Amino acid sequence: MVKNNIEIDVKVKCLEEHKTQADIAKIVGTPASYVNKLIRRDEGVVNNTFVKMLEALGYDIELHYVKREE
Fold it and tell me: For the purposes of burial, counting CB atoms within 10 Å of the CB of 63, is it exposed (0-12), middle (13-18) or buried (19 or more)?
C-alpha cells in the first residue's frame, strides 16, 4: 500500500512553491487535466504491479520528498 496521499502532497508542494497544478503542467509540457488525472487516480504515480510486489514481500511504500538544491 502506498502510504502517501499523492493528491494532498502535490497540493501542499504547489502551495509551498506558489504554483498551481496548471503552472506545473505548463512547465512539464502536459495538459493541466492530465496532471490532475494523474495525481487523483490510485495507480497514477506508483505502478500497481510494483505496489503488489512489495506488498507480497511484506512492505508498504512511503514516498519521501527532498528539495533539490539548485
Answer: exposed
What tens digit of pLDDT does each residue of 16-61 get?
999 999 999 999 999 999 888 888 876 667 888 888 999 999 999 9
The 8-class DSSP code of residue 46 comes to S
Q: Provide Rg for the chain, Cα atoms.
A: 14
Rounded to 10°, the helix 21-28/6-16 angle is: 90
Burial of 35 (C-beta count, 10 Å sphere; 0-12/13-18/19+): buried
> DSSP letter at 67?
P
Grid coordinates standing for 1?
Answer: 500500500
CA-wise closest residue to 38 among 67, 2, 10: 10
Q: What predicted TM-score, i.e. pTM, was given to this entire model?
A: 0.76
